[in-house]
Amino acid sequence: MKEVKIVLVGYMGSGKTTVGRIVANHLNVNFLDLDAFIEEGEKMSIASIFKEKGEIYFRKKEIEYLNKVFLKDESFVLSLGGGTPCFGNNMEFINSKTPYSFYLNVGINELEERLVKEKEHRPMISHLADDKLTEFIGMHLFERSFFYNKAHHKIKSNRNTPTEIAEMIVNKLV
Ligand SMILES: Nc1ncnc2c1ncn2[C@@H]1O[C@H](COP(=O)(O)OP(=O)(O)OP(=O)(O)O)[C@@H](O)[C@H]1O
Ligand SMILES: O=C(O)C1=C[C@@H](O)[C@@H](O)[C@H](O)C1
Ligand SMILES: [Mg+2]
């Protein structure tokens, strides 16, 4: 197989990390998660970076680490942070580097069901009451969809399993 760089974008909880691991295993290439790469490099959790250094600092680091990943001369599956496509010219940069950017498009209700159980380590939503989550996700997703839709491929989940979504991605590779 020639070198292939696959990038997964989508809202928090859309399954980028879960699906990305499956795709990488299937293709036998490295799996990278931008959030984890930042945490490793900065030796701090994302939640601590937001709390101690603020979101703007985090967004600058996100751009820096995204550039670092693409210096790697190897195949990989890269799952981005939920906000990565929405800052700087990150989507243009990614699309200039690979034809395989994928938007995992998951509906608001499905996202809410997943995120209500996992708010704590996600600083964008950890402060929200459970009954405010659906409204917030709806607004936020509406704002962000513009950027997510710049991905070369869109994968719509209708309550598909992670394995099914991974298969849809693999089927788009030529
Ligand atoms: N297709 C799916 N069906 C059901 N549950 C899923 C699916 N994909 C992911 N999940 C579950 O949803 C939760 C969020 O998934 P995951 O952490 O992979 O999302 P993410 O897009 O990486 O989120 P973040 O942007 O916050 O890093 C996890 O509990 C995961 O097990
Ligand atoms: O949607 C977002 O803005 C974020 C998503 C996470 O992946 C992390 O990158 C961080 O919590 C910010
Ligand atoms: Mg993730």
From TrEMBL:
Its main location: cytoplasm. Gene3D superfamilies: P-loop containing nucleotide triphosphate hydrolases (3.40.50.300). Mg(2+) binds at T17. Binds 1 Mg(2+) ion per subunit. GO terms for molecular function: kinase activity. It comes from the Bacteria. It catalyses: shikimate + ATP = 3-phosphoshikimate + ADP + H(+). It is found in: Cytoplasm. Monomer. This is Shikimate kinase. It comes from Maribacter dokdonensis. The gene is aroK.
